[in-house]
Design brief:
The structure is a homodimer. By secondary structure, chain A is mostly helical. Chain A is 73% helix and 1% strand. Chain A has a two-stranded antiparallel sheet with strand order 1-2. In chain A, helix 2 crosses helix 11, helix 18 runs antiparallel to helix 19 and helix 20 packs antiparallel against helix 21. The longest helix of chain A is centred in the N-terminal third of the chain and has 35 residues. The radius of gyration of chain A is 25 Å and the shape is globular. In chain A, 46% of the residues are buried. At the A-B interface, strand 1, helix 2, helix 5, helix 11 and helix 13 of A face strand 1, helix 2, helix 5, helix 11 and helix 13 of B. Chains A, B: It catalyses: H(+)(in) = H(+)(out); K(+)(in) = K(+)(out). Chains A, B: Keywords: Ion channel, Ion transport, Membrane, Potassium, Potassium channel, Potassium transport, Transmembrane, Transmembrane helix, Transport.
């Protein structure tokens, strides 16, 4: 039976359109079974993606479960912003670990039992990263927090080193393109250097922590953020460097120059994050909101309806956040259906978008928790709008970046002038526009903020259902307006035919 | 870029080895884009699997978070067994919903925007099923619980009906084999009848609930369990019916006679369950076990090490459960790597295995929570052993069933006499044997139950690493023993060569 990684051979190649049939490939990565019990890595990666996406969003739970009532306003704001900061940082750290894992398995495309077991060890340590980081954040002046975090990162690095050494000693596990390269050992050294840089920095940080812990935080910040900065630079400059030689510095954080991310893994990771975020609130509801039978008979005279009615806000928050997260997933899905290559900058923007999506359930919960017409409610609604706005905006940015290199990155039908270009633009800009509009409306009509917000929650799913129709109406209107000016008739015809197919 | 569902065209076919190139296929399901904006359904299914696997395990949370200290022994046992019962039932219900979803998308192999949005509605309702069921379980005599549960199921059925009607009105969304069938409308009626049976039964149950709620529970039990019984019968009888005509009753719960489950989706669902179960405890640790700075300075004289030491049992429980769940995933992965076709009985056994895996973190948590040498600790350890035993045993059963139809279901190298037959047997029987052994040992040496259990936790990962070596040693021993009896020499040579390759 054909296995499911046909896209992998193209991952490392610079020209996906190139004909690859003339190259001899000893074992295709898509065979379920190769020599000496080597296996397709597809399921291992799917399981790893599921684990990492759950762990990336784990620190939103302490934020969501902060008892809002038991603090004063000022201390609550400090507490919440600390927790949100920890959430965002752990999300970035785990995403970095995911990117490193993804990079490793672009080189090692087949696995065997030992690699699978080593990978489980690696996963166990990655799932522990958020906890060690939150310890570090809670006790910034204790050396122990830094030591634990650095220790975790160092052991992950060592396990990955062992995996690389093991895989290079059995070349049939490597990417087919690499197996024939004469400079295999040189390449192995390069990869080991890239992998070991992070643990070495952490070792340095944990040593300096004994002397001056501020310095070790600077070192850790470099470890955490440099890959992101490098990704952004790499992505923004991809066009200009495509022709000539590759600068040495680009190779610092990647195994191959201009290596794209694995689209399949990016989708799997995003799916995991969207799924866990969409169900965050129902997890709480299932746990806390099944009323106690004795309580119902005491307080509600045995009326289950009354008891459940008191949970109304929780249900509303759940349905609202599920619908919003689901529709953001739908937009993401529609976009990546037409993406053929994912640059590192696109991956970075995707991470930012996901980080905001993770905050959505919390914001919705707050929205429905406060008494109506209170200042708190207004603020919660505005925060929800801001989160939706940024989550949607970063998705839009992915598309803008992809359009910049549309020949490599996008399918023809969504490129400029393609038959679905405008539809895609409408899908991607619907949420940012609506969120911005709602935000501005609630600023002006603060009395009606809750009805406005609920109206938005109701109309957006409908808008997605009727998007093609709405778009056609809008374009017909535009055409009518433009027809008044005969000079631009040609342009409007183009617009009209664009959505007509 | 090639998409990722090459295995799907084979899902419905009865003979995967058959050459399919002579059949005209208007649109291959693996194209990312077809006519009129139809899309590959791969990612939609991956997202749905992730959502459903999270929801299937959700009701273990109330079990895990029951405050053990605040109840007396007897009432605690009653409370826990009720909650565990609710967990098992919701797991089966959600698995049934997953199977129905999987069946639907074996017929509808391509999607468009509308189907994706309908599917999100369907998912939202499925994620609400566990809550309505637990309401029903908490208030068995209230009509409202039954009504909510039945209402949920009915709306899911209606949405699926709409999806079927929509897909059959656009035949390019259907499986290529169906598109050319002359009796398409007959087939559509058959599918609608299968789908609508469940909502109709629920309607009947909610009507009878007003008269006699016991009767409505009987009806619901039939709705929930009949598919499982039918699956078991279908699986056990698959051999005898393969030749002749297909009995009408088999078609009651399936769209196609002897339809196998989609292996890809079964793997995705299992991966999701294993991933969420493996991380259940770290979610709690991240939320509850970051000590409060003020508490540390008060109670532990500012010593973070002492504060963290008090959480020792939680860490141990996490590492233990992560390793066990991870290794059970590893066994599952190894098994399904060699499975070519999944019968419905195998899917049923897989569901049972997953249901036990879901209870593991809880058992491990209890194991490390009680004081050493207490009766509670012994019981918790024995329960852990029983859960591991059954989780492993059902995995072994999957293999036994697959061996029964090994020509269709397994790759040659794990069939009887295949080069990895014994290795697979060793992998699958390691956990059941070790768990049984530990259980028996703790019965005899109840004083040393905790050390025995920890020893097991440590040795099993090592045993998996050294499994090939251990197996070869064992066989060498066997060979030595058997060589004493010259008549069986041939058999022992066979054994020896079996693992030597």
């Amino acid at each position: 039976m054909a296995r499911c990684d046909d896209s992998e051979p193209e991952v490392i190649e610079q020209h996906p359109e190139e004909d690859t049939e003339d190259k001899p490939a000893p074992v295709s990565p898509s065979d379920p079974e190769g020599p000496s019990g080597s296996q397709s890595s597809h399921r291992l990666l799917a399981y790893s993606d599921a684990l990492i996406s759950i762990i990336a969003t784990v620190m939103i739970l302490p934020v969501a479960h902060t008892p809002v009532e038991s603090y004063e306003v000022l201390s609550l704001q400090v507490l919440l912003s600390t927790k949100i900061g920890v959430y965002l940082m752990t999300f970035l750290i785990v995403s970095m670990a995911w990117a490193a894992h993804s990079r490793l398995f672009q080189v090692v495309v087949r696995i065997d039992d030992y690699l699978a077991l080593f990978n489980l060890v690696c996963m166990m340590l990655i799932t522990f990263l958020p906890y060690t980081f939150s310890l570090m954040a809670a006790f910034p002046e204790h050396v122990l927090g830094i030591l634990l975090f650095c220790g975790c990162v160092m052991v992950i690095g060592l396990v990955q080193t062992v995996m690389v050494l093991y895989a290079f000693s059995r070349p049939h596990l490597l990417h087919p393109q690499l197996q024939d390269r004469p400079d295999l050992s040189h390449y192995q050294h390069h990869i080991l250097r890239v992998i070991l840089r992070v643990p070495l920095m952490c070792l340095l940080a944990s040593v300096t922590a004994a002397v001056c812990f501020q310095l070790s935080y600077v070192l850790l910040a470099i470890v955490i953020f440099l890959p992101y900065i490098s990704a952004a630079r790499c992505g923004s400059g991809a066009g200009s460097w495509a022709g000539g030689g590759v600068p040495e510095e680009l190779l610092l954080y990647s195994f191959l120059p201009h290596e794209p991310l694995s689209k399949e893994r990016l989708e799997a990771f995003s799916d995991g994050v969207y799924a866990i975020v969409a169900t965050l609130l129902i997890l709480d509801i299932c746990e806390d909101n099944v009323p106690d039978p004795s309580l119902v008979s005491q307080r509600f005279n045995g009326s289950l309806v009354l008891a459940l009615r008191s949970y109304g806000p929780e249900y509303l928050a759940y349905f609202g956040s599920f619908a919003t997260v689901g529709l953001l997933w739908f937009v993401h899905h529609s976009l990546f259906l037409h993406v053929t290559k994912v640059t590192r900058l696109m991956g970075l923007l995707n991470t930012f978008s996901l980080a905001f999506v993770g905050g959505l359930p919390l914001a919705y919960q707050l929205t429905h928790e406060f008494p109506t017409h209170s200042q708190n409610e207004l603020e919660a609604i505005q925060i929800s709008c801001i989160i939706i706005f940024f989550a949607g905006l970063f998705q839009l940015c992915i598309w803008v970046v992809a359009l910049h290199h549309q020949q490599e990155c996008l399918l023809p039908r969504v490129r400029y002038g393609g038959s679905e270009h405008l539809l895609m633009l409408a899908k991607l800009s619907l949420y940012p526009c609506v969120a911005l509009g709602t935000f501005l409306l609630t600023c002006v009509l603060s009395q009606f903020s809750a009805p406005i917000f609920h109206l938005m929650e109701l109309t957006v799913p409908l808008a997605f259902l009727l998007l093609r129709l709405l778009l056609r109406l809008l374009l017909a209107l535009l055409r009518l307006l433009l027809l008044q000016l005969p000079s631009s008739e040609e342009g409007s015809t183009l617009l009209y035919t664009a959505v007509d197919s």
